[in-house]
Amino acid sequence: MIHLRRTSTIRIWHDCVALLASHCYKQVSPPLLLELAMNIPDDRFDAELDLKFVREVPLPPEAIWAAWTQPEHIVRWFTPAPWRTTECQIDLRPGGLFHTEMKGPQEGEQFSGVGCYLDIVPNRRLVWTNALLPGFRPNPSFADSSCGDFPFTAIIELEPISIDGSGSTRYTAIVKHRDAAGRDQHASMGFEEGWGKALEQLVELMRT
């Protein structure tokens, strides 16, 4: 029996290549090879469809990871002020729930975000999408391309670096969109400014 390990993209790719190189495909069912291939995330950046945000952050990856994966932290930094995150639920596993409730400064301004985690490598990589509900169920909100919102997949990568001898992080966020219209809509909403402000709030929180 062949056991697949899902916690590492590199390991998944290694397993796939090893199977093919050793001609084990003769004994392995096509669904198993398909499962291997589908679990290799495509991180290539497409400037026409994706948005990218890179910063050097004076915090170790472990602190940023905690801020992204613990609800008590999320509610204190995730939404750029004057908006507030009032509720957060996290089931930190592939297929698990990522849910936030956000409120604006004006009466009636409220937004609910529901997504599904896809890939989790502690202190290094976090991937989720709002195109799927928990359990990898397709989100019916995006069945019609005329939907006012837009589906996306977010990839957060944390690379440990040293700045002036202290433990810091190269923080990379890539947001992948279904089409150029979704990318442009997200950009026009203030992607760069919003993600920048939220990261500043994260750093301020985790340094206290």
Report on this structure:
With 208 residues, the protein is of the alpha+beta class. The chain has helices spanning 9-21, 30-38, 61-69, 71-77, 180-188, 191-207, and strands spanning 50-57, 84-90, 97-103, 110-121, 125-129, 132-133, 137-138, 152-163, 166-177. The strands form two sheets. The protein has a seven-stranded antiparallel beta sheet with strand order 1-9-8-5-4-3-2. Helix 3 (61-69) crosses helix 4.
List keywords for this structure.
two-stranded antiparallel sheet, alpha+beta, 9 strands, 208 residues, seven-stranded antiparallel sheet
Structural class: alpha+beta
Strand residue content: 25-35%
Determine the mean pLDDT. 82
Principal-axis shape equals globular
What is the helix fraction of residues, given as a range?
25-40%
Number of strands: 9
Helix and strand topology:
Elements: H1 9-21, H2 30-38, E1 50-57, H3 61-69, H4 71-77, E2 84-90, E3 97-103, E4 110-121, E5 125-129, E6 132-133, E7 137-138, E8 152-163, E9 166-177, H5 180-188, H6 191-207
Antiparallel strand pairs: 1-9, 2-3, 3-4, 4-5, 5-8, 6-7, 8-9
